[in-house]
């Protein structure tokens, strides 16, 4: 059975809009990452797609996890809650990082018992950690170049490199333990110079800290690893070769390196099928109205600077069309430039590939429309109700 026939079969069985997540692709992406970056411990960024089934598949693969909140932490914790106490502590310490640099007091108080690994980038966070979670291991987040990345991070996160040493001193002086240095070059980073510059900054900070006698031993290179959304995206294997060379040149073997891929693991694992519920020609252009939109699975168009793609199951002479969502908001336009057959009618279907990252993460029920149903393909556990 070819891909289109399989998608139509799923749509007939489950209805639309329908998001199909292929767990074989999740496993493949995880293993590709591990193969190309053997020195790097992979912490899946749960925020990219927090479907419990994805977390379960990656847990079984041996993945570590990057969480941003207590709720995300508990999504992972449920798989280790039956572990004996010491084994549980070791897992949390070794395989979970709270990479949100700002954590509220209540969260810190709740995770104190687990002695978590956490990031920070400011003095106020040092004071909070000292008061509410002094058991934590700290990783200082440093601002690095993120030019050309799809989603830039440096305007909201990261201490300036020139101020990082003082912030490390401040944490140690407060009686806390700084374990390492982290950075993020921006999501969907296709400018590999960002990584080179960031690693150079981190190396200088490591050298400075070790001269002071601080035992920093962890480097967190964040995420941003490019997903092949289109043929122009540089190859991940090329980036991995560059990273491996820089690791060997700049960082001694006793420094543990971790990364937080989210988009790289989840993006290519999902396909969405939507139904055409309306068709009109407006100002000379065909508008296909579908039963999903920017308030739902295509929210990445708004929040993630994602460029959507559409394909039809029916052939025909094509023209540039608009594809818009089902809500009453005129803002709910997914794209005004999809090349699609002009002969599609109400009741036909469109599908979108590579929609596994961040789309469902920010979906809503605006105007009373339900989000897409999610089906998990090649998943070893039960399907959700």
Give the integer mean of the pLDDT values: 93
Q: Report the CATH architecture of the largest domain.
A: Alpha-Beta Barrel
Computed over alpha carbons, the radius of gyration is 22 Å
Written as H for each helix and E for each strand, in order along the chain, the element string is HEHEHEHHEHEHEHEHEHEHEEHEEEEE
Report the major sheet: 8 strands, mixed
Layout of helices and strands:
Layout: H1 3-14, E1 18-22, H2 23-36, E2 40-45, H3 52-61, E3 64-67, H4 70-77, H5 85-95, E4 96-98, H6 105-111, E5 117-120, H7 123-132, E6 137-141, H8 161-173, E7 177-182, H9 193-211, E8 218-220, H10 236-250, E9 256-259, H11 263-266, E10 270-282, E11 285-290, H12 300-303, E12 311-312, E13 318-324, E14 333-341, E15 349-353, E16 373-377
Defining traits:
alpha/beta, 12 helices, 33% helix, 385 residues, eight-stranded mixed sheet, eight-stranded parallel β-barrel, Lyase, Ornithine Decarboxylase, Chain A, domain 1, TIM Barrel, 2 domains
Report on the architecture of this protein.
Helix 2 (23-36) crosses helix 3 and helix 9 (193-211) packs parallel to helix 10 (236-250). The protein has helices spanning 3-14, 23-36, 52-61, 70-77, 85-95, 105-111, 123-132, 161-173, 193-211, 236-250, 263-266, 300-303, and strands at 18-22, 40-45, 64-67, 96-98, 117-120, 137-141, 177-182, 218-220, 256-259, 270-282, 285-290, 311-312, 318-324, 333-341, 349-353, 373-377. The protein has two domains: 3-19 and 268-377, Lyase, Ornithine Decarboxylase, Chain A, domain 1; 24-266, TIM Barrel (Alpha-Beta Barrel). The strands form two sheets. Strands 1, 10, 11, 12, 13, 14, 15 and 16 form an eight-stranded mixed sheet that branches. It is built from twelve helices and 16 strands. The protein is of the alpha/beta class and 385 residues long. Helix 6 links the parallel strand 4 and strand 5 (117-120).
